[in-house]
């Protein structure tokens, strides 16, 4: 079992202990978080659903992210990550939702928003949504996406423990 698989297993067990379902809202990872979770036998007991909202239209339609948020702050922002997490919680049976939006590269980065920038949102029922920003080393798209998955799971574990 690698680090990511171990994190996923611990996250699922933490959800089971709390008797809550989990949901994800993923942009730059394209469903990698929910795929990792559902690779684990028995995950259906705690995984409710995953939203892959790669486009702005999907963020609006599936999660209720406000067009004004996207126009004013961009898809890769604390505000968008917050609304993605809140929307995943509101549009599921989950008690916890993990959201990620970022620039995995190799293109798309700017001086203000470089390749490797990822915003995370974590919504836990009854609590305010938490956001975090990370800028991962630009060691390739796969590296950034894998690090994003791990960080999202760590955020979830921290909230559940």
UniProtKB/TrEMBL annotation:
Domain of life: Bacteria
InterPro entries the record matches: CinA-like_C, CinA_C
Annotated CinA C-terminal domain residues: 7-156
NCBIfam families reported for this sequence: PncC_domain (TIGR00199)
Name under which the protein is recorded: CinA family protein
Species of the source: Mesorhizobium marinum
